[in-house]
């Protein structure tokens, strides 16, 4: 702990002078008294009195953090952290800790709770849990934390409902990192002054100043994410969404892992067929755990019901992006609008490619025999049809990462499992119902291959879209990212697979020509996004993301 605390002295002349603490003694004496209170607390059998002793220790040690000698400063900071933690453990032993800013009665003693730079998403009341008590099971024990001053905790709150941005927070709740400590009232000589319990956002305020000395604040960014993942129901909803379950459809949209920052670049992650954002847990954790990348990027997760044809899924995801920007940046002026990175796994990578592509007349002709203007139907049906088959590269995206993505289809879509999924997946697709109505109102307008046989309209689904010989897919495979959009391939190749594949997607289908980089790893289809080599590659791509690329002109 001592080695993990960064001290930054002010620019005044000479060494900092010992300050007076709340007992009116020097910093050195305060440290000695704090140590005495710690010894007293350790031998105090009464829980309430023990908590009081730890509080006195924490406040005295905090005052001692202005000592002139570096070793004394570090010892005081370490003791202040230790005593603050012991105080919190004591008062949380038999009850939950729920805080609001202002005067509160804790353990029979009034304290002044101060929220410092906590994110707006938490609201006015927060539930606190000690970060080191959170089991990191979902994240496979991977915890990104920084040693320093204060006690790392998770501040949690139910999602809000009173602002448009509330729809962009996960319904499981809001979980954010917090660092907590005790300090004496600014002027305890004044009647009514209470001890101060600080709850600080370590990401927004990474330093804590005492006198003219600043200390690095401890932080744990993984514990809040772990709590969100533990409460998520998306793992089973993803599969049920593929075969027609409606719950994931009600969850569909785009969700923020952090509070929106107009100056941070979004990394938008799109899951695959029958999957969910839980597939991104290790990668998201790694990005948030890298201090430099977390300062530059904000992570957004897309949730969609993966039961519809590929072009419909592209249109759905675009609608989620449009709705998100309408809430966050209605004027369209935020720096976050530019340099967006899309990361897609499996079918999500194909959707990412199509989001950055331009539709062509050939795509329309693969499905229809007449121009769009010749079709009859309701305005709503025709608008949906147009959004599915006519599109532009999505503005602001300039980098793509494809992970195990079947850019040229997958033969698995045609095997027995794929055929079973086809039969289950086509149910409850509103967009297909609209296409059916248009087909019925315009005899002969839809290509015969989509009306009869394996690909009849009623059975078009996400699975049939991944069959290499599906008529529309044969065209959308040719739609490449727009000029200026860099893309990267990360693919799996398992030993013993002939031809090479990750068990689902052939290597030849996962390697899109023209990529800025390609990485092949020994991993199966679902393991690619979780593989350490794949994660390291994505982090490297993000580090280089803002580096200008030389463009040669003919």
TrEMBL record:
One Gene Ontology molecular-function label: hydrolase activity
Keywords noted in UniProt: Hydrolase
Domain of life the protein comes from: Bacteria
Protein name per the record: Alpha/beta hydrolase
Species in which this protein is naturally found: Dyella acidiphila
